[in-house]
């Protein structure tokens, strides 16, 4: 048997089944999640129903499309979109058969990127190595159904010093027509110090 195998290898009868020119198989669930997260959103409807919520704009658009699943994210009061209070880059990846990660990165000099969701090609001037990972602040999401994902950060893993907080928590639900996001900060004793008290912000998709 060994002699036959050697003869077959020499003669070229045995060939690799792997085609080096074959395209990678698309991860359809990852593509689904990444697509759902893209677009412009706001919480106008929620703010009209409940005055304790502000009308917040949320813009999330893909950048570096040949290098992975990256989104530039910008949040602001809808009436003050020229002065966003949050600018981030998210990287969406698969963690396991059933979970996905939305890692969070800070930008250097946020002011340079205000409104650049309108021209994502501007981010070609920088790369992932220019970003600062917010370690422990990734949101781990699970696919619940078609066009429906839910997840959260770790309970105390995302450090935050905003308004006296010690750590932050985020709970996220991604659907076909909206994103529900509940961000809260807690002090070292677990007291709530910032963020919505009743539940998450409901960001309805505009486009």
List the helices and strands and how they pair.
Elements: H1 2-11, H2 28-36, E1 39-42, H3 44-49, E2 56-63, E3 70-77, E4 86-94, E5 99-106, E6 132-133, E7 139-145, E8 148-152, E9 158-159, E10 167-175, E11 178-186, E12 192-195, E13 201-205
Antiparallel strand pairs: 1-2, 1-13, 2-3, 3-4, 4-5, 5-6, 5-7, 7-8, 8-10, 9-10, 10-11, 11-12, 11-13
Explain the overall architecture.
The protein is mainly β and 207 residues long. The protein has a single domain (26-205), classed as Lipocalin (Beta Barrel), CATH 2.40.128. The chain has helices spanning 2-11, 28-36, 44-49; strands at 39-42, 56-63, 70-77, 86-94, 99-106, 132-133, 139-145, 148-152, 158-159, 167-175, 178-186, 192-195, 201-205. A 10-stranded antiparallel beta barrel has the order 1-2-3-4-5-7-8-10-11-13. A hairpin with a 5-residue loop joins strand 11 (178-186) and strand 12. The chain is globular, with a radius of gyration of 22 Å. The N and C termini lie far apart (64 Å). 26% of the residues are buried.
């Amino acid at each position: 048997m060994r002699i036959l195998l050697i003869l077959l290898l020499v003669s070229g009868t045995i060939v690799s089944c792997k085609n080096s020119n074959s395209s990678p198989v698309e991860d359809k669930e990852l593509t689904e999640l990444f697509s759902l997260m893209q677009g412009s959103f706001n919480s106008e409807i929620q703010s009209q129903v409940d005055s304790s919520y502000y009308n917040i704009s949320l813009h999330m658009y893909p950048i570096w499309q040949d290098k992975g699943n990256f989104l530039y994210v910008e949040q602001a009061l809808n009436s003050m979109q020229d002065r966003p209070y949050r600018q981030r880059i998210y990287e969406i990846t698969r963690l396991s058969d059933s979970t996905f990660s939305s890692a969070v990165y800070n930008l250097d000099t946020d002011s340079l990127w205000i409104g650049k969701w309108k021209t994502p090609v501007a981010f070609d001037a920088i790369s992932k190595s220019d970003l600062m990972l917010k370690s422990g602040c990734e949101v781990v999401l699970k696919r619940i159904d078609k066009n429906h994902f839910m997840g959260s950060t770790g309970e105390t893993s995302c450090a935050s010093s905003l308004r006296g907080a010690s750590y932050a928590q985020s709970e996220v639900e991604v659907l076909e027509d909206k994103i529900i996001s509940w961000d809260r900060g807690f002090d070292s004793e677990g007291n709530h110090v910032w963020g919505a008290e009743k539940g998450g912000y409901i960001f309805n998709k505009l486009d």
